[in-house]
Amino acid sequence: MNDYNGIMHCKSITENCAVWGICINPNHYGLFRRALQMSGVNLPLENVTAATTIYGLQNLQHRGQESSGIVTSDGQEFYTIKGMGLVRKVYKPLSTKSLPGNYAIGHNRYGTHGNRDMSSTQPLEETLEDIRVFYGHNGQFTNYDSERTRLEQEEVDFKTNVDSELALQLLKKTDPNTSLWERVEKAYSMIEGAHSSVLMTHNTLVGYRDKYGIRPLVLAVVGGKGGANRSYILASEDGGIRRLFFHLPDVRIQYSDVKPGEIIQIINEELKRKRVHLSDKLLYCIFEITYLAREDAHIFGVPVAEYRREVGRKLAKEVNIQADYIVPVLDSGLKFAEGYHEQSGIPMRFPDFRDHHIARGFISPYDRRAIARNKCVPITGDLKGKRIIVVDDTEMRGDTTREKSMSFKLAGAKEIHWVYCLPEVCVPCDLGVDFQTEAELIASNLTVPERLANLPKEVKSLNHLSFDGLVESIETVAPGQSKNFDFKCIGH
């Protein structure tokens, strides 16, 4: 292979989803309504749990754009809305009126396994004897095929081809004479791969994170020290929760990561938590802090915005390029570019008009090249005759590099230098971001000179953060955490 075509038409590179779970103490309904009002939420607020869940999923939209679903419980009945597309499309302004209750779970999907249709939309449902259970999952089960085959031989009837259903079917096979906690512990011990999830019955909310900690899951406890005065939120990221209560700084909120291998159980508004599955090593996904997470998140003990600025500063030291402007690839390249600017002193310029009505390209199930081409279009005249350093989070397929290089050329840039904030991604991965073959990775197929030969002549260099620079950046903002990350995808 000596050009981009084989990369750009390969099997989709897919990633993960967003999960949300919430139990609001009825004494806190007024508090949550006030927080939503202060955050500018334009929804009916009589069913505040549903409104908060919609707000939470909106703030997790960047993790999954394919479909969305919410299930609520009032302690007796369940109420559901699910649909294809973005959160704003699935939930109409009056949706909260049909979602009563103080328990809820929600899910935004971008599938790593299964069909892209309503049958794959989560939360999924199953019945354990006479108990209805709803489930949402973020990650990918690597033993799905073998476990499904085994269960089907035992005449288990799968309703979907989504790997998430495996957890429910394994849960259903556990001893019905044991507690829900024990059944969850047993079922999850049989699952391999990346697994952060939420599960709900009529009066119980459960969160779990796999023993390697591959995917994040955070717990926020809202309220006082006594269980009777607490509400609970489980989420893939904490940024949306912090944003919700930003204008209410006096509200007591305790944030903590769900630990690898830990079960969180909230039953009748009481919290129980314990690590039940342990591993000798952790495998935090480096893509979380590089691309997937929103910049206001704290992931794996790492403040994402400050980490990205530190990487930018490190790159400016490693890559000595003379240029007129630093240009970030919006949005994920912004904080990296800020750090590069701080260290180098080169002015930042935002020549692109960023259309925020176009979704994220990397996790889109549609034409990524068209998204890369149309999402950001340079403003005429801003780059004419200029030398620019373009700062992007990673180089994966090469879609963004190729399309934006053509745009910058057409806008009149004289020299284009690309700077990527992760070493070359060259090894397949089925635990974190789901790219399972080398054919999906441009760095596995083309050398840097070969990639340059397929780009406009104005592109003079492709530069990547060193592995040492990556480790040093993590250690600078989160001492001691670099040893917990999985660097397999970048060859370490």
What does this entry look like structurally?
With 492 residues, the protein is an alpha+beta fold. The protein contains 15 helices and 23 strands. The strands form 6 sheets. Strands 3-2-4-1-10-9-11 form a 7-stranded antiparallel beta sheet. Strands 5-6-7-8-12-13 form a 6-stranded antiparallel beta sheet. The chain has a 4-stranded parallel beta sheet with strand order 17-20-21-22, sandwiched between helices. It has 2 domains: 18-282, 4-Layer Sandwich (Glutamine Phosphoribosylpyrophosphate, subunit 1, domain 1); 304-479, Rossmann fold, CATH 3.40.50.2020.
- The CATH architecture of the largest domain would be 4-Layer Sandwich
Name the structural class: alpha+beta
Portion of residues in beta strands equals 15-25%
- CATH class bucket of the largest domain: Alpha Beta
* Count of discrete alpha- or pi-helical segments spanning 4 or more residues: 15
Strand order of the largest sheet: 3-2-4-1-10-9-11
The helicity comes to 25-40%
Largest sheet: 7 strands, antiparallel
Shape: globular
What gyration radius follows from the Cα positions, in whole Å?
A: 23 Å
How many domains in all?
Answer: 2
CATH topology of the largest domain: Glutamine Phosphoribosylpyrophosphate, subunit 1, domain 1
Q: How many beta-strand runs?
A: 23
Mean pLDDT: 90
The CATH superfamily of the largest domain is identified as Aminohydrolase, N-terminal nucleophile (Ntn) domain
**Parts with pLDDT < 50 across at least 5 consecutive residues:** 6-15
Q: Determine the N-to-C terminus distance.
A: 25 Å
